[in-house]
Amino acid sequence: MAATAACSIRGRFLGFTITSGVKCFAPKQFRWVSSTRCTSTQAAFCAHLDREIASIKEAGTWKEERIITSKQAVNITVQGSDRKILNFCANNYLGLSSHPDVIAAGIAGMKTHGAGLSSVRFICGTQDIHKELEAKIAKFHGREDAILYPSCFDANGGFFECLLSQEDAVFSDALNHASIIDGIRLCKAKKYVFKHRDMKELEEKLQEASGARLRVIATDGVFSMDGSVSPLRDICRLADQYKALVFVDEAHSTGFFGKTGRGTEEFHGVSGQPDVICSTLGKALGGAAGGYTTGPKQLTDILRQRSRPYLFSNTLPPAVVCCASKVFMVLSRAAGGVT
User: Is 196 a known active-site residue?
Assistant: First the structure.
């Protein structure tokens, strides 16, 4: 059995027989220096991947990465073009990812606190700047405490699994973000999906799960794909009626949606009613990286003990933390407050 160019693995492939007795005829672009061997198993695996790639391209869903050669902004430059290009697709809603004060804060943070911590939070990865940022986040949202994650995807992924068991039930909007969907998949609770923004169906499913110990309604605040807004006032009303908790992902609303950028709950006039808010530092809030969960102190205490993405991921680097802290100061000043 011959391994052909379908086996696009690393290694210097010169056409000679490798340990398994299989010849590998790889094109020049794959003739990299490595000790990786080319086996019939790998060849079959790579052929399988080639078929998968072909099917994605055939479906029209193959994604190419645009290579930007400038800072993120309204006007950017990209590889292969000398012209300025208008950028309509970034989540840099407030233009803060390249704000000079935010950049300066990141540089200053690296000088005082280093490039990184080389540790998870609970071993030796928590600095004063991490606790200060968590306090700013909690204050911004009017909650007791907040906990930082490497991303909002991790925040969502680390919430449901460590809190919900087979005795519980979770209700998810059909158009929720993939991070909510994947987070829910990890938990053992009974799962209900209701039609997008359909409160009648949500109520029916709440009634169906009347015997559950805990019931959690999970929704995006602003849905990223079509921009629709969650009917959060109605969701909170149903949650009160059926004694359910409300979980909101505010990634596409924090910082700019609502009168002072407090998101969907502010927009709908239900500030403080959702029990749990997850959001990101990687969109309007500087665009670097990081996510968080904010809510009752008891919740963040449990997440620090049991949430696997928090426990087993390196802490956010100082530059990211200091950039985000500066963003919250900018937002607070713009709203007439002081942090």
Answer: no
Annotated catalytic residue 111: no
Examine the residue annotation and report whether 130 is marked as an active-site residue of this protein.
no
Q: Judge whether 309 and 150 are in contact, CB under 8 Å.
A: yes
Catalytic site residue from 8, 224, 228, 313: 224
Which among 130, 283, 307, 326 is annotated as catalytic? Answer: 283
Read off the pTM: 0.86
The string of pLDDT tens digits covering residues 158-194 is 999 999 999 999 999 999 999 999 999 999 999 999 9
Q: How far apart are CA 194 and CA 100, in angstroms?
A: 44
Selection from 304, 244, 252, 306 nearest residue 276 by Cα:
244
Task: Please write the tens of the pLDDT for every residue from 103-151.
Answer: 999 999 999 999 999 999 999 999 999 999 999 999 999 999 999 999 9
Catalytic, out of 113, 252, 268, 326? 252
Beta strands in 185-325 (DSSP E): 190-194, 215-220, 245-249, 276-280, 291-295
Q: What is the DSSP letter of 166?
A: T
